[in-house]
Each structure stands twice: as structure tokens, then as C-alpha cells.
Protein 1
Amino acid sequence: MTLALSRFEQEDIAAGVAANLRSDGRLRTDYRPFTVESGIVSNTSGSARVRLGLTDVLVGVKAEIGEPDQAKPTQGRFEVTVDFSSTSASAAAFDDDNTETELASAIARTLKGVDLSALCIVPGEQCWVIYIDALILVAAGNAYDVLSLAVRAALANTRIPKVEVSDDGHGRVELEVSDDPHHVTELDIRAVPVIVTLSKIGAFHIVDATIEEESCAKSRVHVAVDSKGAFCMVTKASAGGIEPQLLFDALESAKQVGQHLLSQLEATLKQEERALAMFPNSQRGFLTDLQSAT
Amino acid sequence: MLSRKLEFVSPEGLRIDGRRPNELRRIQARVGVFMQADGSAYIEQGNTKILATVYGPHEVSRKNKPLHDRAIINCEYRVASFATAERKKPVRTDKRALDLAAAVRGAFEGAVMTQLYPRSQIDIFLQVLQSDGGNRAVCINAATLALMDAGIAMKDFVCACSVGCIDDTPLLDINYIEDSAGGPDLTVAVLARSRKTVLVEMDSRLHIDRFDDVLRLAIDGCQAIHSILDSAMVERTKALLAGAASGADADL
């Protein structure tokens, strides 16, 4: 996720960060506004598209019946894949599978603390498998954060059909999956965190880095924060080191920014729901005006 | 077994989704979806939803060899894992995807004025977000709009349409269920004004006596699609003009 920047550009960005006034006028801990649209892929169990700056991520969630993890026989499970769409500007630059698997495993790790016992159908034999497939349509900085926001929004949008389990009297079970669109359960997503990525530039850290800022960051920390402010995952990425004190400061701002992001996401989703209730036939998704995005 | 039970055209002459045999699905098109691409377009045709992005003309990438007298067209086609009714495991090299990409490239090699861009490359990236039949045709239509959005010189609109034929009835713009009936599926792409065909592909077999009707219906479908694509392009151009007049960033 890097651009080739000249030394002068790099120095300019670093000076801006040091002065707490970044090139787009933001403070170090300011987040850009993002847009969320959920339920725009009709053949999924849940979907959401999140845009932040030019970065554009679409997540589709599909619930299918499968076998539970043998280590957790009474729980459902998540499967996460991330794909850089070829529509992405720098698809060629991202073509190594590494980044895709890195992103997917980061998301999978943030979801580890989520209790999925509600997704169990027959303990040890059948459960709901929640396939989370993310498509990075445009990668223009801060992919981790946008991806985690989109995953959370898509999970909030997910509806799982109710299943009737009946015994046929010979020790075999029969499953009857309801096909009534109103006979569904929602996922409990309260424990799903968001990722806040902090980039170290000079002696300071910033949140929501643009692609230019990412390109001159010495090191990055991905922190997953849940609504209670607890850390669900902390990963230091890229080559440079980070001082202990700076790491503490970074975690503190991650906590604040993360909780703020979560409440903002919640508010945006509620607002969308209200708007949909009022104008159910309004045009959404990729057909809407591009200018309203920014 | 599905096809035997299902009635594809009811005695009243209506199809499964309520259309007449010679009726298109609802088509909604939008030109200019992404800002950072040279050209982009999005088409919803019924429940088939496809994004097309175009980059170029630019320097030829390392994989390809430049041609001294014209541009290379590079085409990639991908289906999102959640696009189909049953989730598909993501695969890197899908034979059918390569085949479809090659067909789209072939259609545009006959329509893009590649001789104007020697030693360069034009990329067409197609991304299926939701798949419900007719992907090949919708891809071509979306790519036409994206190429025009990128300002690449073309002889004409390339408009594509697919036609199936079930129980001797030609069906325009077949959806996934009609497609899985196993009958013939003809995809035709034409240059809108000259009506020259730049792509003709048919799976399965069809009696020679019926072929004429099927092809004619497909070309009629292409004509209808042309007017939809044309109005999407006009709308986009008007928006650009309005943006330029109000002094906003013309790129928006």
C-alpha cells in the first residue's frame, strides 16, 4: 500500500504531522467521514459497502449450514476471505496474495471473541457457517479500518433463517430451514470490534492515514477496539520499530477513536434504516450519485 | 429434473419472472462510479450486477509485448464469491472466466480504434457483484460505457444481448433459471449503427430453421439496449457539463 513519494513530499507530510496540522487540514487524531450502505447485494444474507475517502470496500455475508469446528462443537463459525478486485486502481501492486491473507486473518482474529453459540444447530454436527467475503473495490489508504467497518455493518445487516430440528425417531435429525423472509434471526454483533490503524510518522502517531501518509509511515499498529473500549487485537505491522511510550499513547487514542467510530457507525446504520423506512424505493448502491459520496 | 417440472412459458405467454418472451429485464446503468479510474460504469440488468473499470491507454505492462501499430486490449473478469446463489470458493484461475474475458476482448478489438494508440495498453476490468444470467452480455455493455467514460476512441457503441430458446420459443435476455434449463444460449454483440456483429457465441444446439429467428431477436434486443446505454451516456455528459459550468471539479 505504498506510493513512490519524493523526499520533499515525505518531509512535508512529516512536518505537518509534527505541527498537528496534516496536509488535508486534519489533526493527528481526526477521522474522515465515511459513508455506509447496507443490504445492497440482494442474494446475500447481509451486505454493506463502506467508503472512506476514495477507499471503497464491499462485503457480502452468506450463511450456510456446515460442520462446526471440532474444538468448539457448540458454536457456529466465521470464514473470512478478502479479495482485491481487479477494479482496484493499484491491483497490480497488491497482487501478492500476502496482503489479502493478512487482511483476512486480521479480520478473523478480531472476530475470535464473538460468542457464536446461537449459531449451533446440532452440537458437534451442524452449525451455521458465516462466510464473510470482502471485495476491496478501491484501495486508497486505511484498508484495515474500512474493511472492519464494512464487516461490522454487513454482520449487522445479516439475517439468518430459523431452523427447526426434528428427530425422526431413529436417532437421525432432520433440519427444516424456514424460507419465510420474516422468520429470521439477527446476529448478536455487540462484541464485534473495529480496527483502528495508527501510523507512526516522525515522533508521532496519526489515525486514518491517507495513502500518501501511509507511504511515509515508519511503522503501523492495528488495534481492534470493541464498544466497551477493550482491545481485541493488537498487531504491529511493517518494518520500523515503535517506542514503548508512543505505543501506550497510540493505544490510548485507538481506544477513544475506536469507540467513537463504533457509535458513529451505529448512528449511521440507524439513520439509513429510518431513511429506508420512509423511502423504500430510493435508489441505492452503485447507481447513486457519485458526488454524494464525498 | 428442474427443467422438466418447470414451465418456462405459461399458457398466457408469460415467463417465470413475468416477462413476455421478447421482453428485456429492467436495465439501469450508471457511468462514472469510481473517481480514480480512467473510466468506470455499473449496470444492473434484473438481478445481474456488474462493475466495469477501464485504465489506459497506458504503457504496456511487463507481462505483455507492445504492438508497434496498435494498442493491446487486456481484459480481466472476476466473480465475487457472494455473487451466486450458492457461495463459491474463490479461485484464481477459472477457465470459464478466462474464456469470457477473451470473448469480451475479442468483441472490443473490433470496435476500439486501437490503431490510434500504438505501443500502449487498455485494461478492461470486469467485476460481477451479483450473477443472474446473461453475464457475458452485461459485461460487454458495461465495458462499452466504461471505455467511453475513459474517452477511448470507438467506432460505435458495442451492445450485447443474449437469447435462449426453450421449447421452440426464443426468449430474450434469459436469466439464470432459464439459462440452466440447458437449452441453446446465443450471445450477440453488435455495433449499434452498422449492425455489424462483433461477437456471436452459442452453447448447445439449435435447429438451423430456428437460428434466424433467434439471431434476429438478439439483434433487436441489442438495438433496445443501445438506446438505454446511449441515454446513460447522455446523462453522464450532461452532468459533466453542468459540473464544468458551475466551476466544480470536472472530474467528478
Note: Chain A has five helices and 14 strands.
Protein 2
Amino acid sequence: MKLLTHNMLTSKAIKGVQTGFPLNIVVKKTKTVETEFSSEFIQRMLPKLDWPAFLKAAQTLGVGSQLPDSPPTETTDETVLRSIHHALVEVEVIEGELICPETERKFPISNGIPNMLLNEDEI
Amino acid sequence: MKLKKLKSILDGVETFDSPNVDLEQYPTPPDIAAEMLHHVFSSGDIEGKLILDLGCGGGILSIGASILGASQVVAIDIDSGPLEIFQSNLEEFEVTNISMLQASVSHLSSMMRMKADTVIMNPPFGTRNKGADLMFLEIASSLCSKHIYSLHKTSTREHLIRKAEKRGLKCEVIAQLRYNIDKIYGFHKRDSRDIEVDFIKCWNARPT
């Protein structure tokens, strides 16, 4: 699971959950991959991202130290964009858990794939 | 990239070999996937985009989109079996910009807080699971800021488009394709048959 995916996901589908975001991350194993950097794509993602959630998740994964405290504005140098790219789409949680911030419901991540399936009685 | 080249690459994508009847899993044939993606690419909806693949199965559409220059693809399926095959396809193709998610598409609207640029999908036809085709379209439209590209049975075209338009979607049939379904399930009487399939493009008539 990339942090881009983490920033998209909520547990709001669970009955009674108000925001369900951000999901807490328990990390057991990570992997780093290399993907093509596009400053245009990262800049386009910035307004969509919930920055505090991204920052906290990146810190949990140990890749937050290069990231600014607040989302960078237009004139951002490439070094910062590259650090965002790295934390957002190159570091992946392979084994671990996502946890609903309101109900503590656990969603396992195994083989890099978060399992967000819910039982009928949870929705 | 030439259509023929894309098709020959997609020929190498493994598909699942024990499809689930209730989920109406039909692998997307490489020629159809290639034709579909080639069109989406030409329309400017792949390169540099954030793409969702709903009901991704073994991942042929996602992998094709990645090869054609998508920035990131998030692929979702309810079934772990096809996702495992997808995983091994990713390793085979050395693709690193696809993320997989196991979830029910029916819950996705409230599970995702971010919209993608493009949705590509080959949803259930809605034959055995009534309304599944329309449900996929509706969910896709809530998760997509531009265009949805999808495959649907030609025989249900008017019904589907009427229902979709009632829900604020505009639909355009781009092409009518022949989908050869080998005898996957016991209830198919003949060994192989062709199904007429529409390749449809949809978008929100009232952008949000």
C-alpha cells in the first residue's frame, strides 16, 4: 500500500463512523520501489492530499523527515517535490494494518494489499 | 504505441482460471483491452493521470494503462484470487505504479475521499447479479472527475443508458465489440460464444 492510497481511504462505510480518516497505520514490513517522477503529477496531487494525514503516515513509515510541515505552494523546488513523490508512491507497506480511528476496526494489509472488506452487520 | 504492439504485450498478462459465477468474473480479452486502452490513451485520459480500475481482476486494464503512461493506478477487486494473479503479473511486468486494494465496489463511495481523473473498468454484466453494471457506473461517477470507460452488454444498452442518464450521467457508445467468452461456466451450453459488448464512455453531466 502506497501512502497515496492511504490518503484516499476512509472507514466511513462502517455504520456510525463520522469521518473515519485518517486511518492509523501499523507497519510490520515495508518495501521501496522506484517509479517515474513527474513534478506535474505531484503538483496536481497536492491540493487533493490531506497534508497532516500524509505527513503523519510518512513519519510512521520513517520517510517524513524531508517533508515540509505544511503543503508546499506553487513555487516549489524539485528537491521537495521529489521527497513528496518518494513518500507518496515509492514506499509501500507490505505487511501491517490499517485501523479505524473511531471504532478501532482493523483492516489487514498483506502482500501489499489492504483488505477493506466489511461484514454485512458492519454497514 | 501501436495497437498491435499493445495487444501483443497484453497477451502476456495472466488471467484467473477459476472465475466466480456470482461475481460474474469474465476476464477481459487482450484484444478488447488493447482496443479500449488505445482509445482512452488517444483521448488524453491516460498519460499523467490518476486512474481507478474497478473490478480489476488479473489487472489487464491497469497494466495496459501503466504501460501507456498513467502516473498512478489504483486497482480494486473484491476477490483475493484474481488479486494474487495481478500481484504476480506486476512482478512479471516490473510495473511499480499500480496499487491494489481488496474492497467491495458497492462501498467505495464512502471509502474513498479523493477523486481520480479517469476510471477504466470491465464490470459485471449484471445478468446474474441484477443491477451490478449500473451500480459500478454510479460508484465510478462518484469517484471520477473526468471520464469513465467501461464495457457493457449491447443487449442492455438502452436500459443502461436510460438509467445512467437519470442519475446525471452522459453516455456515449464508442464502439460495439465482439467478446468471445470461452466456456468458463457450466451453464454455458456451447464451448465458445460471442457476446456483443459496448465500449462506453461516461461523464457527469453536472460536474461537481
Note: Chain A has one domain: 3-117.
